[in-house]
Amino acid sequence: MSDLHTTSSGESHGSVSSYIIGFVLAVILTVLAFAVVAMHSLSPSGTIIAVSVLALVQVLVHLHYFLHMGGGSEQRWNNMCFVFTVGFVAIFIVGTLFVMNNTAIHMMSR
Amino acid sequence: MAHDTTVTTSGHDEHHHESPVVFGFWVYLMTDCIIFGSLFATFAVLRNQFNGGPSGHELFELSGLGLETALLLISSITYGFGMIAAHKNEISKVIMWLGVTFLLGLGFVGLEVNEFAHMIHEGAGPDRSAFLSAFFTLVATHGLHVSCGLIWIVTLMVQLMGTTAIPERMMNKLTCLSLFWHFLDIVWICVFSYVYLASMI
User: Fold this and answer.
1) pTM
2) Which residues in chain B have their CB less than 8 angstroms from residue A27's CB?
3) Which CATH number is B75's domain given?
4) Which of these, A59, A95, B116, B194, has the minimum number of CB atoms within 10 Å of its CB?
């Protein structure tokens, strides 16, 4: 990001307007998530799905507008690391839940 | 200051890619992500093990959570404004925005410490149940990261005072802290969604 001479400098470290767009989107998504929980208008599983989707979208908004992740070739290694980590954490969390749930069922502790 | 001497040596590693320092810090953040991933997995497994103690539904309240979230989110954008000022070499503005970010982050940590103290005072400390152990470990690890970020912000503010230009090395430090600070905000999104909101349904 030491882009003193790159042509796409505005893209890689952001401008006031891109930060404000990201901030407004983040505020809207946060308020929606809080509202969904506070209003109790959806079923419990529906609420969890809604909160999860809102959280995922907000994480993407932050990655794009605040961490300036993009598909540019100068970011290839960053993106590769990121994809590896996300895949690792996803396998880790889903695997943990699966194994522990399975154990609990077989041990009849639930 | 010591880092001013590096201005002359910073010329040779100018290239089209970002600094290797920033990439190295990015790799560190990814390992941090794995730490938080494992703590989230622990919490997800233990989230219903109350052992007769209070559940999240009884402990958490939306207003305090909303205030904490707002402080952290606003501190993200104020840090962003600081980075924009840094790219324009406006050092007094950078220090001002870093100061605002510091105060917002301090408010966040203060609210969290207050919440923890209140919970422990009510007998809902980390020793009460597996759910509370996992909760305190996860949320306090995030709070500890924010506290380290606060120390880092003060350090950079002190280093920036009295300088007239931002050398590349200083810019790298500011960029790394920017990644760190925005990363913590992303972790907080997951915390308020899966720890607090999911427990309040």
Assistant:
1) 0.89
2) 73
3) 1.20.120.80
4) A95
